[in-house]
Structures are given as C-alpha cells and as structure tokens.
Amino acid sequence: MKRRLTSAMLIASALAIALGCKRSERESAASVDRFFAEWNRRDSPGCGVGVSRNGVVAYERGFGLANVELGAPITTDSVFHVASISKQFTAMSILLLAQQGKLSLDDPVSTFVPDWADRDDHVTVRNLLTHTAGVRDGFALLAMAPAREDGLDVNDSIVGMLARQRSTNFKPGSEFQYSNAGYTLLANIVKRVSGQSLRSFADENIFKPLGMTHTHVHDDPTMIVPNRAWGYHRDGDIIQAAVHGDLGRLVGTTGLFTTARDLLLWEQNFVTARVGGRALVESMQAPAIPTGWADGSSYGFGLEIGRYRGARTIGHGGGDPGYGAFAVRYPDYGLAIAVLCNLDNVGIIVSRLAERVADVYLADVLAPSATTTAAPPPVVSLKPEQLSGKAGLYRNAATDSVGRVFVRNGRLMASASAGEENSVELTPVAEDRFVVAGTPLAVEFVPADGDRPQEIRVTGEGPTPVISQLVPPFALSDREIREIEGEYVSPELPATYTIVRRDSGLMIQIPGRADIRLQPVFKDGFAGPIGVVKLSRDAHGVVKGFTVKSADVRGLSFDRVNHR
User: What pTM, to 2 d.p., does this model score?
Assistant: First the structure.
C-alpha cells in the first residue's frame, strides 16, 4: 500500500510538472501571438513563425494571407522567398566542395571565372565568403550599363560584368563590405566546380540529408511552388503585389524558397553537424577578421555573429521586394527562431520581431537592455513648414556621398542617393530629432550657423556620427556646360555615355536607359542616380574624363573620346 501511495504521489508530481510546462508553453505562445496580431487579418499578408528548443519545435504558426487575391491563409506549410538568408546555403555548398578537395578557400577567383581581368590584388574564394573581397556591386553595374539584349541569364551577366572590372572597391581583405555580387560569384563557382546548378547541388548535399522537403533554390521563374506565399507591399492602406523582375532567376545571394520549420531543421544542423561535420559548421560561425582590423567583422561564412541582451546570436536576415525574413539561433540556450513574412514593409523590423520572440522564450536569462527598461521617445507632430525646411540634398564631404531628404504625403523621408528611391521614413521625436522606426538610427538636424550650412548628424551606424551638409543650389554657366558636353567611354561596363545639355543643366544618355540628370553639388562634382560623378581635368584644365563613386561602386572611370 505504501509503495502504491508513493508511486501515485510521484505520478501526480510528474503530471503537475508537465501541466505546469504546458501552461508555460501556452503562455509563451499567447505572447508571441500578440506580437503578430496586427498581421493576423483576412485582408493582409503576414508572417510564418517557428521556434525550436534543442531541436524540438516549441511554436509554429501562420498569420495573415499567403495569397491576398485568393484569400489563402499562411499556414505552417507556407513557402516563402527568404532573400539573403540564402547566403549561408551558398557558403555551405562552397565549404562542402572544399571538404571534398575540389577547391581551396584561398584559391583566387580567376581560377574559376574565365576572362577575369588581371588585377594587382587577387580576390580569393575566402574573400567572397566573408564580404572582404571589395568586388563592385553587380546589380549597380548592370543598372549603369546599356540595357541588356544579350539573352544571358542574369547570374551570368553579373559574373561577366564583374570579370571585366579592372579594380575593386578596396584591397581584398582590408575591409568588410556586404556584397551581393560576391555570393553571385560563389554560386557560379559551385556550378563550375561541381558540374551541377546550385539548386541541384544544395538539394542533394544539404536539403535532402536534413529532411528539408519544402526547400529549394528557386532558379526557374516558371516553376510551380505548392503553398507559395506571394510577396506584397503596403502603400498607406493599399496592398500591392510586389514586383521583383529577377525573382526565380537570381541565385547564390538570394533565391532560397523555404518554410519556417525547414529553417529550424537547418539551425539544428549547427548542433548535430549531420551535414558537413563539426569542423565545417564551426568554421561557418567564426568571425572574419579583415587585414588591420582589431575586431572581427561580426560575419562568418554566410552568417552574422552578434549579441542580443548579452546572449550570443548567430543568424541572418533577408529582404527583397515583397518579402522580409530573419532566422537566428541562440547557441548557448538551444533556441532557434524563424520569422518569414510576405510583406516587405515588415522587412525593416523583422529582426526586432525575432528578438521579441526571444524575449519571451529567454525571459529568465537575457540581460536588461535600454529597449526593455526605457520607453521609446514619444512621436511629436510637426508643421508642414518645419518638415519642408529640412528637405534638400546633403553631402558627406569625407566620402563624397550624397543623400536626399524630402517630404512625401506629409512625412519626412530620406534616401541614400540623389533621388527619392529606396527611401525610409524619418519619425519626429523632437523638432530637430528623428528616428528610423525599428532601427537604432537617429537623425539630428543642426540649423545653419554663420558660414556653416544646415547639417544632418546620423548616429547608430557606428562609433561616431555621420555628418552631411546641405548643398546650396547653384547652376553652371553656358561655357562650363560646353566644356563638359561630349562622349565618354568605360571598357569596364562596357558603355559609351553621352553628356548633353538639357534645359539649363546636363544629362547623361545611356543606350536603352532613361536619361540621368546631373545635379551640381561641388566644383566639378555632380549627383545622380548612379552616384557622385566627379570630373577629371588635364594640366590645361580641359575635362578628360570622370569617375563614378557610390557606396557599392567606387572609382569606375570613364575616358573622354570627343567633344560635342
């Protein structure tokens, strides 16, 4: 009888513990549900969310619609395009080929890419993996070249364009600069070395071994994808289908289609090392250290290494028109989180959503942070004239970069170019102080003082503020315009640009492209959608060419071939 009573008490105790855990899981699930409630609507795109603890799924749910037109809901089987989360699978493919002895990470890229231009500094496979290669951005180069009529696959076009470049943005290994083009090159190397497309190689060597049955590299835009979540964009109260002309073609840097549950299987491979082995998965998670840098770049091989509220994190985000995604692992606590959304407006806060999920599941171990102990500053309302007084073109004299601030629909917007494309909203928290919602960025406007024009000081991007000054408008004289008109050639694109007078200014004409207006910014310096155009002159002051400089394409040169 005593033994039976003891056994009954033990069973009751175990049941109580189990029920307590279930209540805890239910409470956690309810908290996560609340985070995503605003997208859990019958008329809106939304997100698929998955959480695992020590490889066991703890939470899995869909919010909103996978297809707004059909009213089809997001489910646990919904397949999302996850953009740059693709990079870690490209990296794994390269590392598996190295493990098989088919390449070395220190091989120069010229070993694998035909017609690679001779350069003083060799770009290696390792440089590409760690974003330390300095290769110019392939998408920017294609946009600067005449419209393509070669019929080539976009990946091959980018590789061919990169092969023609005679210089890089910086000496390989000396800096960290996130590079989509580098991962396009890596996908091409996988194809050349393995004899298989990245899609076939990854399916055979990664997805099938891990049971990722709803995952593939989407390299065929005509392919039917069951349970596909289509991409959308919100403009005010209007939901629009997102346009991504190369979706289904670009691979390596993007192109992965997957589910939240499949990504959790992938995250668990960093624990079990079923694919690749322990040494390989550890190498993926080691920070790259560029030459001369005292600290790491916080980037390994296709993975970002960081911390959140004192806890180590290893993961990656992704964003493309129509989509935003984030997958992260907290290795010291066995927690993995995947948040996949088919609304690109969510993209700028998707990492924050994943952090809020971590706040729930790691509530007892995460350190306090400013964002959890202090309320965000209240948003203030500004008059139209207070907003318009901040609009204009701003120049960072240290880098020759420019950005535009403008008013759209009563909101202050900022773009990291001379135009209004790819802009973000600046939310006012004081008359001269703004923030970018969902980011650590703060923007302070400092009024003009004497000879100093109005300034913008941006904090949150690095240890020191980034300062830019308002560019006063000025116009060129007729003589100055005549001195600049003519044809200019760059063998690196290849392209011939024609600079001509239009109204009272100058335009660049590119075959098959819309004309580009050049806005004078400083002596012999102009701003346009392609970046800052800076003239060069000979000893007699005659214009002999120009260079184009942007964040992604530094120092692309054009030589003058005739005067108009």
Answer: 0.88
